[in-house]
């Protein structure tokens, strides 16, 4: 049996490529100083073992953040909807792993403590198996 590898980094690359090509907002792993609003940031992820008898696998959750300075929540909600459509429209191709289908776990919107920044959070779950 081949050694187990984590799909987390390749999943992040696939998510970045998918979002960068399908939504009209910038997508960042590291937000540059002075980045213009609105934008999407790749956030936290977790991985747990989901292997089966004959294959290494992981269940990975990935959180995305939306940042906006528009008045009200409509811009954040529109971007969350664009992300959902981009992520759930077709399986993600992940180098070295089987393709994965995104399942949205939740989306949340709130006003940041500064009173002017709007923040959206959305998390997806993926079950990913290593190619043999």
Verbal overview:
The structure is a single chain. The chain has 132 residues and is of the alpha+beta class. It contains 2 helices and 5 strands, in the order αβββαββ. It has helices at residues 8-22, 74-88; strands at 27-28, 39-49, 57-68, 103-111, 118-129. A hairpin with a 7-residue loop joins β2 (39-49) and β3. The chain is elongated. The model has no long low-confidence stretch (mean pLDDT 92).
Query: What best-fitting shape do the alpha-carbon axes yield?
Result: elongated
Helix content: 10-25%
| Span between termini | 8 Å
Taken in chain order, the helices and strands follow as: HEEEHEE
How much strand? 25-35%
Mean pLDDT: 92
Contiguous uncertain segments of 5+ residues: none
The major β-sheet equals: 5 strands, mixed
Assembly status: single chain
List the total number of helices: 2
The strand order across the widest sheet is 1-2-3-5-4
- Give the total of beta strands: 5
What gyration radius follows from the Cα positions, in whole Å? 16 Å
- Helix and strand composition category: alpha+beta
